[in-house]
Specification:
The complex is a heterodimer of chains A (812) and B (370).
Chain A lengths: L9 E5 L4 H14 L3 E4 L21 E7 L2 E10 L4 H11 L4 E3 L4 H13 L1 H9 L4 H8 L5 H10 L13 H17 L6 H20 L3 E6 L3 H5 L4 H8 L7 E7 L2 H5 L11 H9 L4 H15 L6 H17 L7 H12 L5 H13 L13 H12 L9 E6 L3 H15 L5 E4 L9 E6 L4 H9 L6 H15 L3 H13 L6 H14 L3 H21 L4 H21 L5 H24 L1 H20 L5 H13 L5 H11 L6 H12 L5 H7 L1 H13 L2 H16 L3 H12 L29 H6 L1 H8 L16 H10 L13 H6 L1
Parallel strand pairs in A: 1-6, 2-5, 2-6
Antiparallel strand pairs in A: 3-4, 3-7, 8-10, 9-10
Helix pairs in contact in A: 1-2, 1-12, 5-6, 8-10, 12-16, 13-14, 13-16, 14-15, 18-20, 18-21, 20-21, 20-22, 21-22, 21-23, 22-24, 23-24, 23-25, 24-25, 24-26, 25-26, 25-27, 26-27, 27-28, 27-29, 28-31, 29-32, 30-31, 30-33
Chain B lengths: L2 H9 L7 H4 L1 H10 L12 H9 L1 E2 L5 E2 L7 H12 L3 E6 L5 H13 L5 E3 L6 H4 L1 E3 L1 H7 L6 E3 L1 H8 L2 E5 L6 H12 L2 E4 L4 E4 L5 E7 L10 H4 L2 E5 L6 H18 L8 H17 L18 H18 L6 H12 L5 H14 L6 H11 L1
Parallel strand pairs in B: 3-10, 3-11, 4-7, 7-10
Antiparallel strand pairs in B: 1-2, 5-6, 8-9
Helix pairs in contact in B: 4-5, 4-6, 12-13, 12-14, 13-14, 13-15, 14-15, 15-17
The chains are: A alpha/beta (812), B alpha/beta (370).
């Protein structure tokens, strides 16, 4: 009944996830029509096999096995539409032919995995030695790339071309080749294979009793010679004796092409699932159909691709294949042709083709009847341990992070948030200033079960899933702020394993972001995040380094970014400078290694900002203020800077902006002027010198600056100003601000002579005196100057000659 | 360029002989050993052309020197493109051997690399189509004899490979006259009521610089007629250091500069800086960087090192030191005074400062940037 040389069951050695193999398996099964089909896979999955025929089951899916008491220990058997095993399962189910898994039970393999992990020598050996059978065959055939050899010899066998020799010849030839390889390489560095193959042989014997020779076995080509070997039942049983065992459960989970393509973790390591799917699904002319698909994709992405492009690409691919001596254009030829013809030689659109088509975005689906995912079990277990019952009613809880249970609860809730399972929402707590307290609003809704099932793609435990999800989010994030927020969430959710990936993404985004504003926005959040290191004992070294790097970039990029700004932009940047200043202060504590250098450089940047004329006034003033507050600018230097900024040549609007930056914004701004009267005198002198026509322009700015002060500060300032300017050559002009005695720039008490000058006007206004106002010739020209005094309730101390500080008094 | 001059130059003491003359032996050996099918009027089969460019050993022991060091894939696509009678466009930043590859391709395919149109901003339509011999035209009226064919027209009628250098520098209206030639493979002569039809074997290799902005971008109609191959910069630091030091050596000798005793370390450093900034990532692959607007090609690295050598020889102690290359690097990196300077300083502060053994270089660069 078969083309195999030895009598016995039909052994179909395949390459896992090879579309050519899948097609060949289908043809072979059709030809041989076996009474049963055995498949390499965990036998515990037998009960789940009928689900494969379910309407709602769409590959790629994976059979997931996990240890019941430790959902983190899991194994996956992914199946794609084009997997030979899947084809065989569907073939059997469609014909009501019994189908079984015959690999070593997951109960043993999961337990053995744990043992292997415990023994480091063993794993090292297992990783280094394995022989790749396909590679050896390819090298023998003179190919440098095993995938390409396999493609040429097996996958590209167009249906029909092998028909003449019978659908089974290829399997026979491959089996022989593998036998030769196994002779040369033994177990090829997969010591566990011996056990697995012994188990499979036992299964084959059982099947032989039931079905005679009329059954087919679909397994990896590598195993074919071992299954054909004649051994004694006792020898096989001996191999299986004393295997470790855990209680394992299996279910179907949806899979994605992207995960099939992934090499690490549970990926199947196939580079191009999308291409394979295409090869498997395309009835004929695979290259032409592929090129049309690619053209469609590129057109959707607004790239100009005509039919002529497709024609030329197909021609080029075919000629390339001929030149490289290949029977049919493969993925590398088509890719080269697409690059040269459709993408103008550029790899950028090609990356899109690779992502969307070569790998593909197909997402598998699993019917609802499939058993629950282990993630749900893990969650239930944790809910029980932490005594957090899922309840439909909303309730609030307060967590004290200093307690272990509460900290664990917080971690669980944060992890679920990372996974998009919105069971708990952080609420504004009562003691919101403390970092050790958290408030949550909990509400479990039925659709969250669905969310959990969806999140099952990411892993089998809440921790593993959240880690995988965070890593994936970090890679996909485009904006710097997204990654920063993610880093914060990772720390809150205690996902140390995800942190390196997130940090890397953060460093990358930061390096490429040329907008200093973005960097400056990100830094305070990072510095804030670093503080959590104290409460949660998380290792934040990596975070600190990234933050320090971010600060470095800000130091370099800030000075050029401060020039040529409009008022709004300057104001925004001033706030950011404040934020960065605070953040660098925090960082210096958290990253001791680079603290001094960083602070030093930041200081240098601020110094640079203060003296650069092109920098917006508000930022210059702010930088001077920050330096002054930190004691890196002495009072004399500050006075000199202020003198420069307020010198008569400077446009008044700029000078006003400088004043706003220097003494505005923060609440303590006014106190500086109260205590350093020299600075106040500078402001005062400048203000009195502002020409009348520009005065109204600077008025709003000044009002904004001074109206933010507390009432007491304003009153004190008003009192100081009321004393008027110091008379020329008066004693104490150069002495430091004393206790009200002789402040530089201001007289010790009211200048009575000047105060008296206002009296005639006042009398006139109040109608106390009938005399005509001939003694004050300026009065009629300045009726407005007296008005504020009249309605503002302010002491009428300001003489018309000193009228320009009126608004100061008004705001006071 | 007339025919007689060409012959004279290639037989005599030409400063730089054509590819088909310089490598005549190799071409002959290849043609002898080549038993694969050849497209019509090709001197070699596509396989042999690829071998000629990439280098290898023939069955009879003849060693073919590699003409192009780079991905095999690119050469294969380029040769195959010519075999499918599509025009080939070689793109790349300056200094990536575009012209070199096109010359050798033409030499190997047609045995003649001289059918060349040099693209400039002033390239007239006559250079692409045909001109007139006005004495003939006045004396005898329009006829084929009065016609002065362009290199392209000659290539069409003889089934040869024509080359167009710097395609994007050619004015757009002149570029447009290529479309008919490339798609219809014919060149109408409306004055004579005739046309020149390309015979089999005719093809065009064009080169263009994809870094220069503001030149005459190809129209999509013309672009569609070309298969594009982008020639990359050297793939590994070792290859680049090798190219740079060899070239520096040659240039230095012609300028009578004394060889620097410890030059290699500094060359390696220059190449590293150029590569890292160009690729936007440090060599250890751990830190991403912004890339400045300059090309930072291998050719520029060569000139920086040569400059440094001259500085060291004439004003220093003859040893190539960080200070000698710092100014040159700064000049090559900072093309845009605002944006590039920030990028350079970021690079200095975040990468160079931390690197072991780069302290003196960091200091030299700080001094140069100040």
């Amino acid at each position: 009944m078969s083309g195999t040389p030895a009598s016995g069951p039909l052994l179909l050695g395949v390459r896992h996830h090879g579309p050519g193999s899948a097609r060949a398996v289908r043809a072979a099964l059709d030809a041989a029509n076996p009474r049963a089909v055995l498949i390499e896979g965990p036998p515990e999955g037998d009960a789940l096999l009928p689900l494969a025929a379910d309407e709602e089951m769409r590959p790629p899916v994976a059979l997931l096995a996990h240890a019941v008491d430790d959902p983190g220990r899991a194994a996956f058997w992914p199946f794609a539409e084009f997997s030979p095993e899947w084809v065989a399962i569907r073939w059997a189910l469609a014909r009501d032919v019994p189908v079984r898994f015959i690999d070593l039970p997951a109960a043993h393999s999961l337990a053995m995995e744990a043992d292997a992990e415990a023994d480091p020598d063993d794993t090292a050996e297992e990783r280094l030695v394995p022989v790749d059978p396909i590679r050896v065959l390819a090298e023998t055939a003179g190919y440098d790339d095993p995938e390409r050899w396999w493609e040429d010899v097996v996958e590209h066998r167009v249906p029909g071309s092998g028909e003449a020799a019978g659908p089974l010849t290829a399997f026979a030839a491959l089996g022989e080749a593998m036998a030769a390889l196994r002779e040369a390489y033994g177990d090829g560095g997969h010591p566990r294979d011996a056990v697995r193959e012994a188990y499979m042989r036992i299964q084959l014997r059982t099947a032989a009793k039931e079905f005679g020779d009329e059954f087919a076995v679909v397994c990896g080509a590598w195993h074919v010679p071992a299954l054909r070997t004649r051994t004694t039942l006792t020898a096989d049983r001996a191999l299986l004796k004393g295997l470790p065992k855990v209680k394992a459960e299996l279910t179907w989970v949806p899979w994605t092409h992207r995960r099939l393509a992934r090499h690490s973790g549970y990926g199947a390591g196939i580079e191009s699932p999308g291409w394979y799917e295409h090869l498997f699904a395309a009835p004929d002319r695979p290259v032409e159909r592929w090129m049309t698909k690619v053209a469609g994709l590129l057109r959707d992405e607004d790239r100009f691709v005509s039919s002529a492009h497709v024609i030329e690409a197909v021609r080029l691919a075919a000629t390339l294949a001929a030149m490289r001596g290949r029977p049919l254009a493969g993925l590398s030829e088509t890719t080269d042709a697409i690059r040269a013809v459709m993408c103008d030689g550029s790899d950028v659109p090609l990356a899109l083709v690779h992502d969307r088509l070569v790998v593909g975005t197909t997402l598998g689906e699993v019917p609802d009847t499939a058993p629950a995912v282990p993630l749900q079990r893990d969650l239930t277990r944790q809910q029980r341990t932490l005594r957090l019952k899922p309840e439909a009613d909303e309730r609030e809880i307060e967590l004290d992070l200093r307690k272990d249970t509460d900290a664990s609860r917080s971690r669980l809730l944060h992890r679920l948030r990372v996974l998009g399972i919105g069971w708990g929402e952080p609420a504004a707590g009562r003691g919101s200033t403390g970092t050790f307290r958290e408030s949550w609003r909990l509400r479990w809704e039925p659709e969250l079960y669905v969310r959990v099932a969806e999140a099952g793609v990411w892993g089998t435990t809440v921790l593993a899933a959240a880690t995988a999800r965070a890593e994936s989010d970090a890679v996909a994030a485009t904006a710097l702020a997204e990654v920063t927020a993610l880093a914060e969430r990772c720390l809150l959710a205690d996902l140390p394993d995800a942190l390196p990936v997130v940090m890397r993404a953060l460093a990358d985004r930061a390096a490429l972001d040329s907008d200093v504003g973005h960097l400056a926005d990100a830094l305070p959040a990072l510095a804030r995040t670093l503080r959590y290191g104290d409460v949660r004992a998380t290792d934040t070294t990596a975070l600190g380094e990234v933050a320090a790097g971010l600060a470095e970039r800000i130091c370099v990029g800030l000075p050029p970014a401060c020039t040529g700004l409009d008022a709004e932009g300057a104001e925004a940047l001033r706030r950011q400078v404040d934020g960065v200043h605070t953040a660098i202060g925090l960082l210096a504590g958290a990253v001791p290694s680079s603290a001094d250098g960083l602070r030093e450089r930041w200081r240098a940047v601020l110094h640079k900002l203060t003296v650069r004329d092109t920098v917006a006034g508000v930022i210059r003033g702010r930088a001077a203020r920050l330096l002054l507050d930190d004691g890196h600018l002495d009072q004399d230097a500050a006075a000199r800077l202020m003198g420069l900024a307020l010198s008569p040549g400077t446009p008044p609007a700029d000078a006003a902006a400088w004043i706003e930056g220097f003494v505005g914004g923060a609440a303590g701004g006014g106190m500086l002027l109260v205590h350093d009267e020299r600075l106040l005198a500078l402001v005062d002198a400048w203000l009195t010198g502002v020409p009348t026509d520009t005065f109204t322009d600077v008025l709003p700015l000044l009002r904004r600056t001074f109206s933010a002060y507390e009432a007491g500060v304003r009153r004190t300032l008003g009192d100081l100003v009321r004393r008027g300017p110091v008379p020329a050559g008066a004693p104490g002009a150069g002495t430091p601000a004393g206790a009200g005695a002789t402040a530089p720039g201001f007289g010790p008490v009211l200048d009575t002579a000047r105060a008296d000058a206002v009296l005639p006007v006042l009398r006139l206004v109040l109608g106390l005196d009938e005399r005509p106002a001939t003694t004050v010739p300026g009065t009629p020209a300045h009726p407005a100057t007296t008005a504020p005094g009249a309605h503002g309730g302010r002491p009428p101390a300001t003489a018309p000659a000193h009228h320009d500080d009126t608004p100061l008094g008004e705001t006071a | 360029m007339t025919v007689s001059e060409t012959t004279e130059a290639s037989t005599g003491e030409a400063l730089r002989p054509h590819a088909e003359d310089a490598f005549a032996e190799e071409l002959k050996a290849l043609a002898a050993a080549d038993d694969r099918p050849r497209p019509e009027r090709w001197r070699l089969s596509p396989w042999a052309v690829a071998l000629y460019l990439l280098g290898g050993t023939l069955p009879d022991g003849t060693v073919i020197t590699p003409k192009y060091v780079g991905p095999r894939r690119l050469v294969e696509v380029a040769v195959t493109t010519l075999a499918t009678d599509r025009a080939l466009l070689l793109l790349g930043v300056p200094g990536t051997a575009k012209t070199w590859v096109s010359e050798h391709l033409a030499a190997a395919v047609s045995g003649d690399s001289t059918l060349l149109v040099q693209g400039t901003a002033g390239t007239p339509e006559e250079a692409v189509r045909y001109g007139w011999n006005y004495a003939q035209l006045l004396a005898h009226g329009p006829s084929r004899d009065a016609l002065v064919p362009s290199p392209l027209m000659r290539a069409m009628s003889q089934g040869m490979t024509a080359r167009i250098e710097e395609l994007t520098r050619i004015p757009a209206d002149v570029q447009d006259s290529l479309i008919t030639i490339l798609s219809e493979k014919t060149l109408p002569l409306p004055e004579l009521g005739q046309e020149v039809q390309a015979v089999r074997g005719f093809n065009v290799i064009a080169t263009a610089n994809d870094r220069d902005r503001g030149v005459n971008e190809l129209s999509s109609a013309l672009r569609r007629r070309f298969n594009t191959v982008v020639l990359p910069l050297p793939a590994t630091p070792e290859a680049e250091v090798d190219i740079v030091s060899r070239r520096v050596d040659q240039v230095g000798r012609s300028l009578d500069l004394p060889p620097a005793p410890d030059g290699l370390a500094e060359i390696r450093r220059v190449v590293t800086v150029f590569r890292e900034l160009r690729d936007g990532v440090t060599t250890d692959g751990r830190t991403k960087l912004k890339s400045p607007s300059g090309t930072l090609s291998t050719a520029e690295a060569i000139s920086v090192v040569t400059n440094g050598l001259a500085l060291a020889a004439h004003f220093g102690d003859g040893v190539l030191r960080p200070g000698d290359v710092a100014a040159g690097i700064l000049g090559a990196v900072v093309r845009d005074p605002a944006a590039d300077r920030v990028i350079w300083q970021e690079y200095l502060e975040t990468v160079v400062r931390e690197r072991d053994g780069w302290k003196d270089f960091y200091r030299a660069c700080r001094e140069a940037s100040a």
